[in-house]
Each structure stands twice: as C-alpha cells, then as structure tokens.
Design a protein that fits this description.
By secondary structure, the protein is mostly helical. Helix content is 74%, strand content 1%. Strand 1 and strand 2 form a beta hairpin. Helix 6 runs antiparallel to helix 8. It is globular. The N terminus is likely disordered.
C-alpha cells in the first residue's frame, strides 16, 4: 500500500468513526424533535428517517450519513482546540455537548434542515427510492411529504430559538439565510431543466447554493458555538462551501455511474431524468462530437436504453474527468480556507477527514 493510500484509508476510518459517534450523539435529540410533531406529520417524518415502517411499526432506522451534523461538531471542536472531534463525540449527548461547545442542538437543526430539503427534492425530482426504501411522497402522498418537510424546517429554527447558548440567535439567522439561498439554488436547478443551454458557470453557482451553502452553514454554526470571531466564522463557511461543491461534483458522478445496490436509486437516474448535472453540463459545453451526441439524446424523452449511451457520451466528452479534477481543485481551495480559521491544521483532523470522505466516496 502506498503512503497516499494509507493516508486515505486512515482518514476514511477516522471519518467513519466520527460519523458513527455523531449519530450516537445527535440522534436522540433528533428523534425527540421529530416525535414532537403532531399526527400524520410525525408518522411521515419517522418513516423518512427510517425509524418506522409504513404502517407505523418500529424499524431499524437509516438516518443517513450525518455528514452535516458531523461538520457542526467537528468545526466547534477544531476552533476550541480540545483534541480530535471523534474522541469528543464519544459517549453520547452529554459528552458530545461538553467537548463540542454545546453545539449538539445546532447539529440537530442542520440535520432537520437537510432533511427538509430531501423531502422536497424527492417530490420535485419524482425520485421513488431513498436509502433503499420508497420515498415518503410515494407512500404518504405529495401534500403530506411537502408539509412534513416544512414542519422539519420550523423545528430546526425552533431548536435554535429555544437554545440558551449565546450563539443561538446568530446561528438561527445564519441558518434562515442559508435556506433562502438553498431554495434559490433549487429553483435554478429546476429552471435549467427547461432551458436548452446552460453555462458551466451558471451550473457551478447553482450547485454552490444548493449544496455548498448548507455545508458552509454547518461549519459556520460550529464556529459560532465555539465562540469564534467573524473572520473565523466566515472562513469556516467558505471551507464548507468549497467542500460542498466538491461533494456535489462527486454526487453528480455517482448519479450517473453509482451502483444502485449502494445508492438505492436506479442506475443513471439523473440521466434518465435529463438533469443538467455538472458532468453533463461540462460535456454539453465541451464542443466535442460526444457532447453533440449527448445534446441530441437530451433533446427528447430518455429511454432506459438511452441511459448507457448518454453515460458513455458524457465520459467521451470529458465530463467525468473534468468533474473528478474539479472536485480535487475545490478541496484544495477548501483546505486553504480552513487554514485561515485553524492555522494549525492538526487541530482540524475531524474536518479534514470528513472532507476526504465526501470527495473519495463512491456511493
């Protein structure tokens, strides 16, 4: 094994430990918040998080990777300088709160906001599978899924409003502004599907708003809860945004070439929906014959047989290589921003491990 491979493996293991301990720390508070919802909204939310089956009976749970709440806790940890975030999150809520600057409620708020977007995205994109199960809107109907997503966003803001931590007001305002930006990114994404031509710069701006904004906000909230100053908070936000764009680039690659057994979605789902994801737009604007072939496929309804041809065209036009290279470039920028907030990057091991995880993942 090479030194690089060994480092990647080590960081991957650290990220896995950090994410698991984040779930142990955050999930009890997250579940308490979800269980406070009334009636049918509670049932939809409990199903969406994997805690209940469609009929309301208990399920094993599949609440997702917890990347965003982990970023909140890791950012608070890095700026307080108390040691590795993975160690700080050990032992559940009380221990996690003590070492992560009392940021657990902020982490839960970010996770609720993220799942608000997932419930809405599934409706907008007409996705029928998430985390290996039918999506909430296909089980409970579109109105209930949308309304439950709205309620989750309200829960997120209420958690921060009721938090006695001195940073809670600033965190609430920052999260609210982030959601407005995120919605603007989602609106742009939908508009792109109706347009014949979309530039790569437009697509990058949209992805930064739709994905980078919330990861940046997660890091900024951790910084706020650690008592950081404005410059450090902004640097943490910039780190999360750059890492978020790298995350989206990798997610777009998975949307084309991901293994359905791991993603829980059909192969080439984004192509079948004719989404103008970043690798696709890079291919469409490449000026190559393969890009023209892809444009022709995107001009009409996409059949299952067309998906393989479209994926091959994206690759031949350079979209896959561009996305991989650009993801690496964005991560380089992310580390530069992180060093503004935490000059000794050794204190930011948790953040770096999470960043490595989101850009090295293949599912």
């Amino acid at each position: 094994m090479s030194t690089t491979e060994a480092m990647t493996t080590s960081e991957g293991q650290e990220a896995a430990v950090l994410l698991e301990r984040t779930r142990e720390t955050v999930n009890p508070e997250l579940r308490r918040s979800v269980e406070s919802l009334p009636g049918s909204m509670r049932r939809v939310a409990m199903y969406h998080f994997g805690w209940e089956h469609e009929d309301g009976t208990p399920a094993a749970g599949g609440t997702g990777k917890a990347i965003r709440p982990a970023l909140v806790l890791a950012a608070a940890q890095a700026l307080r300088g108390d040691g590795p975030a993975a160690e700080g999150a050990a032992g559940g809520g009380a221990a996690g709160e003590g070492v992560a600057g009392g940021a657990v409620r902020a982490a839960v708020a970010v996770e609720l906001a993220h799942n608000f977007t997932l419930l809405h995205d599934d409706v907008i994109d007409k996705d029928v599978r998430r985390r290996g199960r039918p999506t909430a809107w296909t089980v409970f109907g579109t109105p209930d899924a949308i309304i439950t997503g709205d309620a989750m966003m309200a829960l997120a803001l209420r958690l921060l409003a009721e938090d006695p931590h001195p940073a809670s007001a600033a965190a609430s305002a920052r999260l609210a502004a982030c959601i407005v930006e995120l919605c603007a990114g989602q609106q742009a994404d939908c508009a792109f599907e109706q347009r014949h031509s979309v530039s790569l710069d437009e697509c990058l701006t949209m992805a930064t708003a739709k994905t980078g904004a919330l990861l940046g906000c997660a890091c900024a909230l951790g910084a706020l809860y650690a008592g950081a100053g404005p410059d450090e908070v902004d640097a943490m936000d910039a780190f999360g945004r750059e890492a978020g764009l790298a995350f989206q680039l990798i997610d777009d690659l998975i949307g084309i070439w991901g293994d359905p057994g791991h993603t829980g979605k059909p192969a080439g789902a984004d192509l079948l929906a004719r989404k103008k994801s970043l690798p696709v737009v890079a291919a469409l604007t490449s000026g190559t014959a393969a890009g023209e072939e892809l444009a022709a496929l995107y001009a009409g309804p996409m059949s299952g047989d067309d998906v393989g041809r479209a994926a091959a065209a994206v690759e031949r036009a350079g979209g896959r290589d561009w996305a991989q290279a650009h993801a690496a470039d964005r991560m380089g920028r992310a580390v530069q921003q992180l060093s503004r907030a935490v000059p000794d990057l050794g204190a930011a091991g948790g953040l770096l491990a999470l960043a490595e995880f989101v850009t090295r993942r293949t599912k």
